[in-house]
Amino acid sequence: MAAALESLRKGGVAAVRVERLAAGLGITKGSFYWHFRNREELLEAVLAYWSREMTDAEFERIAVLEGGLAVRLLALAQDVLEKGMGRYDPAIRAWARADRKVAAAVAQVDRRRVRALTRFFEEGGFAGGEARSRARLFYTFLLGEPQVRSPAREAGELERMVKLLQR
C-alpha cells in the first residue's frame, strides 16, 4: 500500500499500475495478483488504506495523548505538516475530481476528520457550534497550509495557531 500511495502521490492515479508496482517491489505480477484480482481492487484497497491509516489510526493515536486540546492539535499539526502524514491528500483529492466513488470516500473522510476534531474542541471546553467551527478552521488550515506556505515555516508558527484556536 505504501508503494501504491507513493506512486499515486508522484504520478497520479494513472501511475498506480500493477506492472510498475510489481517491478518496483521486486515481485512478479503473478504474486501481485495473489493479493488483488485486478487494478480496480488495488485502487479500492489504496483508498481504504489511506482512509484508515491517515484518519482513523492517526486520530486514535492523537485522542489518547495527555495534556489536553493544545497537545492534541499540535501533535496532529506536526504529524500532518512536518512528518508527512498529509502528503497523500493532494493526490487523493486530485483523483477524487475525476472519480465520483473516490469523491464520496474523500467526503466521508473529511466528515470523520472534522467530527474527530470537533470532539477534541468539545473536550477542550467549547460547545457545539463553536467546537465545530474551530474544528473546520483547523482542518482547513491543515489541508491548505502546505499549498501556500514558504519552504521554511516560521519558528513557533504551529504553536501560535494552536494557541489562537484554543482561546
Helices, strands, pairings?
Blueprint: H1 2-11, H2 18-25, H3 29-35, H4 39-63, H5 69-82, H6 89-96, H7 100-123, H8 128-148, H9 157-165
Helix pairs in contact: 1-6, 2-3, 4-5, 4-7, 5-9, 6-7, 7-8
Summarize the structure in words:
The chain is mainly α and 167 residues long. The chain has one domain. The chain contains nine helices and no strands. The protein has helices at 2-11, 18-25, 29-35, 39-63, 69-82, 89-96, 100-123, 128-148, 157-165. Helix 2 packs across helix 3, helix 4 (39-63) runs antiparallel to helix 5 (69-82) and helix 4 packs parallel to helix 7 (100-123). The longest helix is centred in the first third of the chain and has 25 residues, at 39-63. The model has no long low-confidence stretch (mean pLDDT 92).
Low-pLDDT residue spans: none
Which percent range describes the beta-strand content? under 5%
Q: What is the distance, rounded to the nearest whole angstrom, between the alpha carbons of the first and last residues?
A: 40 Å
Query: Quaternary state, please?
Result: single chain
Mean pLDDT: 92
Number of strands: 0
Globular, elongated, flat, extended or rod-shaped: what is the shape?
elongated
- How much helix, percentage-wise, in residues? over 70%
Count of separate structural domains: 1
Please tally the helical runs, counting DSSP H or I stretches of 4 or more residues: 9
The Cα radius of gyration reads 18 Å
Mind summarizing the main beta sheet? none
* Alpha-beta content class: mainly alpha
Return the string of H and E elements.
Answer: HHHHHHHHH
